[in-house]
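ESCALATION

Customer reports they have been waiting on this structure for their group meeting. Please prioritize. Original submission:
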Amino acid sequence: MIGIAFSTAALIIVLSVFNGLGDLLRSLNSSFDPEIKIELEKGKSFEVSPEFLSKIQAIEGVQIVTEVIEDYAYVRYRDADMVITLKGVSNNFLDQHRLDDHIANGRLVLEENGINYAIIGRGVQYALSIAAEENLYPLQLFYIKNMKASGIDPSQLYTRKSIEPGGVFSIEKNYDENYIFVPLQFAQELLNYDNKRTSLEIQTHEGVNEKDIQQRIKAVVGDAFKVLTNEEQHQDIYRLLKIEKLFTAVALILLVLVASINIFFSLMMLAIDKKKDISILFAMGGQQRLIQKIFLGEGALIAFSGAVTGLILGGTICWLQSRFGLVGMGMDNAIIPNYPVEMKFSDFALTSLVIIVITLLVSFYPARLAARSYSIDHL
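Update from on-call: job pushed to the front of the queue and completed.
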C-alpha cells in the first residue's frame, strides 16, 4: 500500500508540474507573440495593401491587425554594439496590451510628440548599458544593404537611423537578449521595406473560437500564406514538452507496476497460507467464483487504499507548492521563483484508471490459481 501510495503521489506531482510548465510557456509566448500570425508560406516578406488589410479586419471576430516588419539589424549605444532582431510594429500594437505587465524600466511608448522611441529587451539593455530613463544618448541602428559593388563609399553600403530608448521589457531570456521594438515607419525607412511586411499579427475579440477565426482568415488570404495560432507558432516546444511528459508518465507507471508486483506475490503467498480455509469454504458450498472474488477483492483493497492515499498526498503536495512554493527553481535569474504546478482532473482520472487496470491484471492469476487449486484438492 505504501509503495503504491508513493508511486501514485509521484505520478500526480510530476504530471502537475508538466502542466504548470506548459501553462507558463503559453503565458510567456502569448505575452510576446500574437494570438494569430499571418506570414508567407514561402519567402520572407509580402506586399500589404489597404484593401488586403481591410479584408482581414472585416472578418468577424478579428479585433486588431498589427503590421510587422522583422529583420536583423546592428545597434550601437555609446561604445557598445551588438546584432539584434528589430521588430517594427504599427501603432495599434500597444492596443493589444501584450507588454503592459512586462515593462521593467521606462515607459511603454513607441511614438510621442513626433519623436520615435524604442522598447528594448532587458538583456539588450544590460549588454549595451542603456539608460532608458535618462535618454542622454540615442540608439544608432544600422542595416546592411544588399550591394555587391566594390570601390564605392562605405557609407552607401548601409542605412543608419537614430532613435531614443523609451522602455525596457522583460519576458524571457531568449526575447530579452535579442529584440528591440520600434515604430513601423522607422523600421520601414531603416530596412527599406516600403509597403512590404514580414507578418501580420491578429488579436481576436474575447470569447471567440480561435480555430474558427483561423479558418476564416485562411479562406481570405489564400494558400500562399500560413495562418498560425499561438501554439502552432511554437509547436516544436509544445511537442517536446508533451513527449517529455509522456515518457516521464510511462516511467512512473512502471514504478506503479513494480509496486503492484508486491500485490501479486502477496496474493500468491496468501493462497498457499489459506489453503485449508479455502477447503473449508468449498466444503460449506463455496464456488470457484467466490474464491476468485475474495482474492480479487483483497488485491483491490490493497491497491485502492494505496491509490486513494497517493492521490490525496499528491494533490496536497501540489496545493502546498502552488500556495507556498515549497520547491524553488534553484536559479536567481529564473522567470518564476518556484516550480509551477497545475492540477487537472484528467490526470487524476488517468492515474486511477491505470491503477485499476494494473490491479486487476496482477490479482487475476493468484485468484484463479487459488480457486483452481482448492477445486483440485477437493476432487
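Sent to customer with the following note: The chain is about 50% helix and 20% strand.
Escalation resolved.
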